[in-house]
Specification:
Distance between the termini of chain A: 131 Å
Strand order of the largest sheet of chain A: 1-2-3
Helix content of chain A: 40-55%
Number of strands of chain A: 3
Number of helices of chain B: 9
Largest sheet of chain A: 3 strands, antiparallel
Number of strands of chain B: 0
Radius of gyration of chain A: 50 Å
Structural class of chain B: mainly alpha
Shape of chain A: rod-shaped
Oligomer: heterodimer
Strand content of chain B: under 5%
Strand content of chain A: 5-15%
Structural class of chain A: mainly alpha
Chain lengths: ~180, ~190
C-alpha cells in the first residue's frame, strides 16, 4: 500500500477540486485504503451537513434589506434650472396674452407701389369720420382686421383706414403721393 | 444550455440586462426588481461571512447601494452575479476588519422554526445550525470566503479565484485547510453531543 495522501489532498479530492495525475494517484490509493476512503466520506458528509443545517435568509430579512436600500436611494433633486425656466416661460406667455388682448395684432398692408411712403397724418380728430368713433367702447371678443376703407378728399392726403374689431384701435395708412390710388 | 453564475439561465441573464438598462435610465422599479432577483444570494453570503444578522443586513444594503452608485458605469454585458459576489466579499471584509475581534454568533434562522417542524426537530435543527456557525467562525476570514463561495454557493474554483482576486492555487490551499478545520470541528462537536 502506498503512503497515505495528506489530509488537504483528500479534502480537495472530496470536493472535486483535484484534476489530472493528482486525482488519479488518490483514486489509486483509495482503492486499497479504507481509512482514507472513510476520510473522504467524512469530508463529503460534513459538506452535506453544513448545507443542510444552514438555512437561507428568511423573507423578513430580505424585505428589510430591500426596504432599507429603496429608502436610502438618492432621490433625484428637482432641477432648479427647470423650475426657473418654467416660471419664466409662464410669465412671458401671460404677458403676451395680456398684451395681445389690449392691443390686437396690427395687420400692415403692403404698399401697392414702391413709391408709397408712410407719412405723418393729421390727428384723428381732424377727420370727421374718425372722430365719431372716438368714444371708448367695450372691447370685443374677436381681434383682427374688420374692414379697410379708403378716405380720399380733394385737399387732403388719401388715407387708408383699417378698422379692427376693437373700436378703440384704428390703423391709418397715408401715402405721400396724393394722386396715387 | 450553458449555465452562468448562480446557475442563472441565459434568458434570465437577458432579462437582467434589460433591467439594468432600465435602471441606468433612472427607473426605480427596475432597480428594485434587480434587488429582488439578487437579494437572497447577497444576504445569504453576507450572513455566512459575517455570522451576524444585523451586520449582514447592513452589508447587503451597502452592496445594492454601491451597485446603484456604479450603475452608470456598469456594463450590462458583464455578469452582475460575479460583480455582486465580489462586492459582497469586499464589503464583508471591510466590516470584519472594523468589527470587534470576538464575533457574535447571533444568526437566528427564523425559517428553522417556521418550517412546520415539531419542537424536538426544531431544537435539533437549531443545534445543528449553531454547530455549523461555530465551525465557520473557527475559520480565518479568507478560508471562510473560499468555503462559502465554493462549497456553499457552488461556484467553481476558477470562479472563486476570480471573485476573491487570487490564484486558483491559493483558493485550493484555503479550501483544503478550511475543509479540514470544519471536519475536525464538526466531528468533535457531534461526538461530544453523542
Amino acid at each position: 500500500m502506498s503512503r497515505h495522501p495528506e489530509e488537504q489532498s483528500l479534502a480537495l479530492y472530496a470536493g472535486e477540486d483535484l484534476h489530472g495525475p493528482e486525482r488519479r494517484a488518490i483514486e489509486q490509493h483509495l482503492l486499497a485504503c479504507a481509512q482514507c476512503r472513510e476520510s473522504v466520506v467524512e469530508f463529503r458528509d460534513v459538506r452535506s451537513y453544513v448545507l443542510a443545517s444552514l438555512a437561507g435568509p428568511c423573507g423578513k430579512d430580505l424585505k428589510a434589506v430591500r426596504q432599507g436600500v429603496m429608502e436610502r436611494l438618492p432621490i433625484r433633486q428637482p432641477r432648479r434650472f427647470f423650475w426657473i425656466a418654467a416660471a419664466t416661460s409662464f410669465t412671458c406667455l401671460l404677458l403676451i396674452f395680456v398684451a395681445s388682448g389690449r392691443h390686437p395684432a396690427k395687420q400692415v398692408m403692403k404698399p401697392i407701389a414702391s413709391s408709397h411712403k408712410l407719412s405723418v397724418v393729421p390727428a384723428p380728430s381732424a377727420i370727421p369720420a374718425i372722430a365719431q368713433n372716438r368714444a371708448p367702447k367695450r372691447r370685443p371678443r374677436r381681434t383682427g382686421l374688420l374692414n379697410v376703407e379708403l378716405i380720399a378728399q380733394a385737399d387732403r392726403t388719401p388715407v387708408i383706414r383699417m378698422n379692427t374689431y376693437d373700436p378703440n384701435v384704428v390703423i391709418l395708412w397715408a401715402s405721400s403721393e396724393r394722386n396715387e390710388q | 444550455m450553458t449555465a452562468t453564475w448562480m446557475g442563472a439561465l441565459p434568458m434570465e441573464q437577458s432579462l437582467l440586462r434589460q433591467l439594468i438598462a432600465f435602471a441606468k435610465a433612472g427607473n426605480a422599479e427596475a432597480f428594485e426588481r434587480i434587488i429582488v432577483l439578487n437579494e437572497r444570494m447577497v444576504l445569504r453570503v453576507a450572513q455566512r461571512l459575517l455570522l451576524n444578522a444585523e451586520d449582514a443586513q447592513d452589508a447587503a444594503q451597502e452592496v445594492f447601494l454601491r451597485l446603484h452608485r456604479n450603475l452608470k458605469r456598469f456594463d450590462e454585458c458583464k455578469d452582475l452575479g460575479a460583480w455582486l459576489y465580489r462586492m459582497t466579499v469586499n464589503i464583508c471584509r471591510d466590516r470584519l476588519r472594523r468589527s470587534k475581534p470576538h464575533m457574535q454568533l447571533d444568526l437566528v434562522a427564523d425559517s428553522l422554526t417556521a418550517s412546520g417542524r415539531n419542537p424536538e426537530e426544531t431544537v435539533e435543527a437549531a443545534q445543528q445550525y449553531s454547530l455549523v456557525l461555530a465551525a465557520l467562525a473557527g475559520l480565518t476570514p479568507r478560508e471562510r470566503e473560499a468555503i462559502v463561495l465554493r462549497d456553499l454557493e457552488g461556484n467553481s474554483t476558477e470562479e472563486v479565484a476570480a471573485i476573491l482576486g487570487s490564484s486558483e492555487t491559493t483558493v485550493r490551499s484555503q479550501l483544503s485547510t478550511g475543509r479540514a478545520k470544519m471536519r475536525t470541528a464538526l466531528l468533535a462537536q457531534t461526538r461530544k453531543s453523542k
